[in-house]
Amino acid sequence: MTTNRVRHIVVLGAGVIGLTTALSIQERGGYTVSIVAEALPTDPKSIKYTSHWAGAHHVSHAKGEPRQTKIDQDTFRVFWELSAPGGRAEHCFMRLHQSEFSTKVVEGENSLSWYPDFKVVEQNRLIPGAAYGVEFSTVTIDTPAYTNYLLSRFLAAGGSVIRGSVQHINQVVEGGARIFSDPKRPSPVDAMVVCTGIGALTLGGIEDKTVYPIRGQTVLIRAPWVKFGRTINSHNTWTYIIPRPSGDVIVGGTRVENDWYPIARSETTEDILKRAITLCPELAPPEIRAKCTPTIDDVRPIIIEEGCGHRPARKDGIRLEVVWFQGKDKKVPVVTNYGHGASGFQSSWGSAAIAVELLEDSLIKSKL
Ligand SMILES: Cc1cc2nc3c(=O)[nH]c(=O)nc-3n(C[C@H](O)[C@H](O)[C@H](O)COP(=O)(O)OP(=O)(O)OC[C@H]3O[C@@H](n4cnc5c(N)ncnc54)[C@H](O)[C@@H]3O)c2cc1C
């Protein structure tokens, strides 16, 4: 750094990416960090805030791609620490045994082999319909609880959060965070980080046309007896069971590109439940399973909600770059950290670390 002056950084977006990035900057020291966002973790669930809808589990989709693998591994290390018994955020995580089945055999080394306790499932233990399976230890995340944990950690360390709907990057570059709460007193900004998820498609100054939604629909059920994670991937469906520490279980799912429909479709819920009870009969209450083979009618009484979210996908994956914008009297670096698709939680800390490096390099370049 070239100066000891405290720098003012604005993070745009308060989803898992904005919150993790804001915390990562704040915890470096030497910055005051403000978040500006239209939707916050404390709001009711809405289609404008994907992070509330995620399962979520840490099961990397990196498929061996080096940058994404490192991002996911770095995040896993942080989650493992946070989820430790007595750890800082133990209540947000469940450490568990995960099985990933597939209708196709995976040749060569499996890209998930770095997870603890990794094993290929023996043929005689494969579930019906599976041709291949692996098992390992990982974590699931109670996403509403975890985003609120991140928010409270950020606020407790002196961060500020301002609700605002930003039309163009220049509004913040010139006016800072405070113009959204106190328009008479614009505040200075030394740099910005854009973590707007699907909002990057329309945000003025970014308008990234390679960003698109992958709609995912899920059903939340109450089944505290389920303590393991299980997924089956086939060529056109993806069915998963993700238990949370609260005893709720996320059952999914769907992935439909460019489907903007904002609420659950009842026929999709039926399809998800049918696939889920086949994959995991243990979803039904134990007393029913003791008497007969369960059906989806045994799961209906324990449904809490159905819903959907728009995974913020991007053609080339996460955009981690610096773009310069002209402010009132200087150029301001704007770091981008969006486009996490189906992996926002499991890549949150790793991508935030790269965003912080980009931010600090650009501040050195601009001699701020
Ligand atoms: C059904 C489903 C299951 C999933 N399962 C998993 C999983 O198991 N593991 C995993 O890692 N990921 C999972 N995901 C993906 C994960 O949810 C996303 O990748 C992640 O939530 C993206 O976070 P984000 O912060 O980029 O976006 P969001 O959470 O959408 O946050 C965006 C923020 O930007 C703000 N914003 C946007 N535009 C503007 C603007 N113009 N002005 C002001 N504020 C703005 C919004 O208000 C919000 O605060 C799942 C997603 C779905 C839908």
Automatic annotation (TrEMBL):
InterPro entries, sorted: DAO, FAD-dep_OxRdtase
Signal peptide region: none
Biological processes annotated in GO: D-amino acid catabolic process
Keywords assigned: FAD, Flavoprotein, Oxidoreductase
Cellular component terms (Gene Ontology): cytoplasm
Keyword rRNA-binding: no
An annotated Gene Ontology molecular function: FAD binding
Binding site residues for FAD: 50-51, 166, 196
Gene3D superfamilies xrefs: D-Amino Acid Oxidase, subunit A, domain 2 (3.30.9.10), NAD(P)-binding Rossmann-like Domain (3.40.50.720)
Pfam families: DAO
UniProt binding sites for D-dopa: 240, 311
Residue ranges of every copy of the FAD dependent oxidoreductase domain listed in the record: 9-358
UniProt cross-references to PANTHER family, sorted A to Z: D-AMINO ACID OXIDASE (PTHR11530), D-ASPARTATE OXIDASE (PTHR11530:SF11)
Protein name: FAD dependent oxidoreductase domain-containing protein
Species the sequence originates in: Marasmius oreades (fairy-ring Marasmius)
